[in-house]
Write a structure and sequence with these properties.
Layout lengths: L2 E5 L8 H10 L4 E7 L11 H7 L7 E6 L7 H7 L3 E5 L6 H10 L3 E6 L17 E5 L14 H15 L4 E5 L7 H7 L3 E4 L9 H15 L9
Parallel strand pairs: 1-2, 1-8, 2-3, 3-4, 4-5, 5-6, 6-7, 7-8
The structure holds ribulose-5-phosphate (5RP).
C-alpha cells in the first residue's frame, strides 16, 4: 500500500498544527520530520521538542529522519518525545547494527537511510532487522531539490533483494517527489513517499496531497483492479 509521508520541512512553521491537519485531510498518512544538525548536512532544523509539540496534534505516525552525525546520542530523546519511526544514515553509523537495535529497544520502528552515492549493497547484513529503508533521491540537507533519476534503479534493486531474501521491510524514498516523478519510484517498488514542496502550498496543501496520492496509487503494482 502506497502512503504519503508529508515532509513538514516545506510547511509554514508558524502554523505547523494546521499544516499537518491539511496534509492529513489530503490523505497523507505519515508525518515526516527532517532532523538536521548543521554537521552531517549543511542545514539546521528541528529536534525532539518539535516532535513533542506535534505528538498531541495528530494520531499519524511520526517518522523522524535523523540527518545528524551522532544519532545514538539522540535516540532516547526522540523516543521520549513520541517518535514512532526513526531512521539513521548508514554513512554516519560506525556500528549500524547496534544503532538499529538501540532504536528497537526504545520502542520505535528502525529505518536505515542511504545517500544517493551510497550503494544498496552496504545494507545487506542489516536488512533483516529494519522496518524500512529510505533511499534518498536528492543529497540531504534542503527541500525543493531536483530528483536524481538513478534513485529509481536503486529502489528496484532493493525491491528485488527484498524478494530474494524473503523479507518485508518497506521502501521509502525522499527528495524531489512530485507529480512528474512519483510514478517512476512507485513502479520501482517504493511505498512510503516523502514529499515536501510538492505538498505544502498556501491554501492548496490538501489538494496537492490528494493529487500526488492519486498519481502514486494509479502507478502502484498492487492497485485494486478496475481503479487505475
Ligand atoms: O530530507 C529532505 C531533505 O534532506 C526532505 O525531506 C526532502 O528533500 C523533501 O523535500 P522535497 O519534497 O521538497 O524535495
Amino acid at each position: 500500500m502506497v502512503e504519503l509521508a508529508f515532509s513538514i520541512l516545506a510547511s509554514d512553521f508558524a502554523h505547523l498544527a494546521d499544516e499537518v491537519k491539511a496534509a492529513e485531510r489530503g490523505g497523507g498518512s505519515i508525518v515526516h520530520v527532517d532532523v538536521m544538525d548543521g554537521h552531517f548536512v549543511p542545514n539546521i532544523t528541528f529536534g525532539p521538542p518539535v516532535v513533542q509539540a506535534l505528538r498531541p496534534v495528530t494520531n499519524l505516525p511520526l517518522d523522524c529522519h535523523l540527518m545528524v552525525e551522532n544519532p545514538d546520542e539522540f535516540i532516547p530523546a526522540f523516543a521520549e518525545a513520541g517518535a514512532d519511526l526513526l531512521s539513521v544514515h548508514q554513512e554516519v553509523c560506525r556500528h549500524l547494527h547496534r544503532t538499529l537495535q538501540l532504536i528497537s529497544d526504545h520502542g520505535m520502528l528502525p529505518g536505515v537511510v542511504i545517500n544517493p552515492a551510497t550503494p544498496v549493497d552496504t545494507l545487506i547484513e542489516v536488512l533483516p532487522m529494519v522496518h524500512y529503508v529510505l533511499v534518498m533521491s536528492v543529497n540531504p540537507g534542503f527541500g525543493g531539490q531536483k530528483f536524481l533519476p538513478f534513485a529509481v534503479e536503486k529502489i528496484a534493486y532493493l525491491a528485488e533483494l527484498r524478494k530474494q531474501m524473503g523479507l518485508n521491510f518497506r521502501i521509502e524514498v525522499d527528495g524531489g517527489i512530485a507529480p512528474e516523478t512519483v510514478a517512476s519510484v512507485v513502479q520501482a517498488g517504493a511505498e512510503m513517499l516523502v514529499a515536501g514542496s510538492a505538498v505544502f502550498s498556501k491554501g492548496k496543501t490538501e489538494q496537492n496531497a490528494k493529487k500526488l496520492l492519486k498519481l502514486a496509487r494509479a502507478a502502484a503494482p498492487d492497485k485494486p483492479a478496475g481503479k487505475g
